[in-house]
Amino acid sequence: MLLGTVFDINKQDCLLGDVKKTNNIFERMRGLLFRDKLKPQQALWIEPCPSVHTFGMQYSIDVVFLDKMGIVLKVVDNLDPMRIASCRNATVSLELLAGDAGKSGIQPGMKLIWNNKESN
Q1: What domains sit in the chain, N to C, each tagged with a CATH number?
Q2: Could you read off the pLDDT of 37-77 as tens digits, one per residue?
Q3: Do residues 69 and 19 make contact, with C-beta atoms less than 8 angstroms apart?
């Protein structure tokens, strides 16, 4: 996985400083399953990914769905284990610890970008 950050393009503000991005089909399929629980301000950027499930998860997550331009289309707060969420026209799913989307101020209409820490 690649390590990076998520920025709000309009405000030029770093919202999440510890964001892993999947870079192959196996990482996308696995998602957060069998990984340590996310810590506050950590996230997983999965692309392409218009839907997620929490089968096998032990904790709730927030899911932010973005389109191909990085516009937030939908925010799903507190998706409990054993649930499914999806968003038509989404190409990215950003998975966060439950409550962190709100704490980070993420809402529909924002434009987010993932930046690789290696290139900063």
Answers
A1: 2-115 (2.60.120.1140)
A2: 999 999 999 999 999 999 999 999 999 999 999 999 999 99
A3: no
